[in-house]
Amino acid sequence: MLSSMIKEHQVRQSAKKESQENKRKEAVLAASNLTQALVDHLNVGVAQAYLNQKRLDAEAKQLHSSAANFSKQTGQWLNLVETFSSALKELGDVENWAKTIEGDVRTITIALENVYKDSQETQSQ
C-alpha cells in the first residue's frame, strides 16, 4: 500500500512536472511570439520613418536644385535688365546729343542767315 501510494505520488508529480513543463514551453513560446510581434510592429514604424526620410532627402535635393536654377535665371534676368537699362541710357544720351547738335546747327544757320542778310544789305547800300 505504501509503495502504491508512493508510485501514485510519483506519477502525479511526474504528470504535474510534465504539465508545468508544457505550460513553461507554452509561456516561452507565447513570450517569443509577443516579442516578435512587438519587434515587427516597431520595425514597421522604423521602416516607414526611413522611407519618409529618404523621400524628404530626395525632395530637399530637388528643392535645392530648383532654387539654384531659379537663382541662376534671376541673375540672367538681372543682367538682361541691366543691359536694357544701359541701352536706354545710351539712347537718351544720343537723343540729348542730337538735340544739342540740332540747336548748334540752328544757331549757326541763324548766324549765317544774319551774316548773309547783312552782306546783302551792305551790298545794296
SSE diagram, text form:
Blueprint: H1 2-124
* Gross morphology: rod-shaped
Strand content: under 5%
List the total number of helices: 1
Would you tell me the overall average pLDDT? 91
**Main structural class:** mainly alpha
**Nearest-angstrom radius of gyration?**
53 Å
Low-confidence stretches: none
Helix content: over 70%
Number of strands: 0
Question: What is the succession of H and E elements?
Answer: H
Quote the distance from N terminus to C terminus.
182 Å
> Largest sheet, described in full?
none
Protein name: Biogenesis of lysosome-related organelles complex 1 subunit 1
InterPro entries: BLOC1S1
GO biological process, one term: endosomal transport
Pfam family, one: GCN5L1
Description:
The chain has one helix and no strands. The longest helix has 123 residues, at 2-124. The radius of gyration is 53 Å and the shape is rod-shaped. Helix content is 98%, strand content 0%. It has 125 residues and is mainly alpha-helical.
Q: What's the quick description here?
A:
The protein contains 1 helix and no strands. It is 98% helix and 0% strand.
Key descriptive features of the protein:
single chain, 125 residues, mainly alpha, rod-shaped, BLOC1S1, Biogenesis of lysosome-related organelles complex 1 subunit 1
